[in-house]
């Protein structure tokens, strides 16, 4: 039977590459986006044009009502959900002392509460079927801490704790929960870095290159697959060896 996967923040970057990979591997794919409508619509149209099952849903992951409607739509359209990829996030770079309360709240609302919202909403469908996979996208900064990214690092460290705790709670219900921790990946999220900083980051990775969205998508796909059936509560670093 075809599996159904919902990927948050799939209009661009890692989420987009993940949606493409799951579609090409025969899954029904629900592509979530918030503001990049034309990118998301173009992706769905390309996937459908190639004969794959893909749909689009606009929802801000920090808004619970929108998230609940998205999961209802997923169940109506595809009959349920098998895999949830919590990928949507924002980033921001500034000194800790300059982070305002509203910037702090926005970061945590999208990056961490978004994971809470989507996961709780998806569990309404996964728990009764006693089956499901949840993949949360954290960051190496959540493991090691990034200077001038304290709010981002805190949100990603929160995702790691969330993953480990929930994996213990949901294992007996047949649901696996894992975390992907990307290093420096070439997407729009790097646009604040200048060329010199990127070169420096590249040379500090043992594999001497930046990651691609496809590198991360492959890890997400593996952890979602039956090949990873005995893996839960883990953090898979995809960082070219930058964090060992
Ligand atoms: P990206 O290219 O900036 O894409 C971010 C995605 O998140 C977009 O599709 C965006 O959709 C969506 N998004 C943002 N706010 C949203 C909201 N409120 N509701 C729903 N969707 C929202 O970033 P990326 O590099 O692919 O990052 C993907 C994940 O990897 C994130 O969790 C990020 O923290 C993590 N990560 C990235 C790197 C890196 O170096 N790139 C490193 C470590 C971890 P719209 O444009 O439609 O709003």
What does this structure look like?
InterPro entries: NAD(P)-bd_dom_sf, Sc_DH/Rdtase_CS, SDR, SDR_fam. One of its GO terms (biological process) is monocarboxylic acid metabolic process. The chain is an alpha/beta fold and 244 residues long. The chain has one domain (4-184, 212-238): Rossmann fold, CATH 3.40.50.720. It contains eight helices and seven strands. The chain has helices spanning 13-24, 37-49, 64-78, 101-129, 140-144, 150-170, 195-203, 213-224; strands at residues 4-7, 28-33, 54-58, 83-86, 132-137, 175-182, 235-238. It has a seven-stranded parallel beta sheet with strand order 3-2-1-4-5-6-7, with helices on both faces. Helix 1 (13-24) packs across helix 8 (213-224). The longest helix has 29 residues, at 101-129. The protein is globular. The N and C termini lie far apart (38 Å). NADP nicotinamide-adenine-dinucleotide phosphate binds at residues 8-9, 11-15, 32-36, 60-62, 87-91, 110, 137, 139, 182, 184-185, 187-190.
Shape: globular
| Main sheet: strand order | 3-2-1-4-5-6-7
Helix-strand pattern:
EHEHEHEHEHHEHHE
Question: How many strands, which pairing sense, and closed or not: the largest β-sheet?
Answer: 7 strands, parallel
Radius of gyration: 17 Å
CATH-level-4 superfamily name: NAD(P)-binding Rossmann-like Domain
Helix percent band: 40-55%
Q: What is the CATH architecture term?
A: 3-Layer(aba) Sandwich
Strand content: 15-25%
Count of DSSP H/I helices: 8
Bound ligands = NADP nicotinamide-adenine-dinucleotide phosphate
- The level 1 CATH classification is Alpha Beta
The number of strands is 7
Low-pLDDT windows of residues? none
- Tell me the number of structural domains: 1
Give the termini separation.
38 Å
